[in-house]
Amino acid sequence: MVYNKTKKVIEKQQARKRKILTVAREILAKEETGSISIKTIAKKAGIATGTFYLYFKDKEALIDTIIKEFYDELLEIIKKERTQYTNGFDKLAASMEACIRTFMKKKHLAKILLDLSPQSSAVVNTKFTDIENDLIRLTKIDLDELMEQRLIPIQDTRVSATAFVGAFREVILSWINGDEPADMDMACKTLINFNMRGLGKN
């Protein structure tokens, strides 16, 4: 006999999954990924430990979902900020400013998103690589457009995009890890201008 879920049951399950994700995000805001246990997440979510596995295969699957949601959220913020501009340089600057604001507001989630390290799980490192490649691809699109408009020198835009994303990530990660600048506005302008000069913008 096939059990057809009612709308109420589906809504309850969706609410429970959202609760698990919310709790996990709250814990990740204070703890490193390695110190988080499914038992702790389940307890704070008000469910049995076994119930957790009805929604996520394991802790890595949960973290993978959190990272994906955070990245999707970041892309939406970037997209919204970029709609205000038509100039390629302004779009790039808007993208960087949106990233900085979002990353510094949600430092622990940002660290998971940005930090490729041996201590991270294979799932997290794979997700990191996928996201970094996507950011490089999106940056390359902007650079190709700027080069076609002859606003930057002729260059290998794939290499430039990789360096652009890499330098940006390293600086933001250093801020998140405790070296946050005293004057954040000045630091942001400096980072943005540094990356722009690297592309050949006067």
From TrEMBL:
Record-level Gene Ontology MF annotations: DNA binding
Provide the alphabetized UniProt keywords.
Answer: DNA-binding
Residue ranges of the annotated DNA-binding region, renumbered to this chain: 37-56
Presence of the UniProt keyword DNA-binding in the record? yes
**Domain of life of the source:** Bacteria
Where does the record place the HTH tetR-type domain?
14-74
Q: Which PROSITE patterns does UniProt cross-reference here?
A: HTH_TETR_2
Q: One matching Pfam family, short form?
A: TetR_N
Q: Known PANTHER family for this protein?
A: ACREF/ENVCD OPERON REPRESSOR-RELATED (PTHR43479), ACREF_ENVCD OPERON REPRESSOR-RELATED (PTHR43479:SF11)
Q: What is this protein called?
A: TetR family transcriptional regulator
Q: What is the lineage of its organism?
A: Bacteria, Bacillati, Bacillota, Clostridia, Eubacteriales
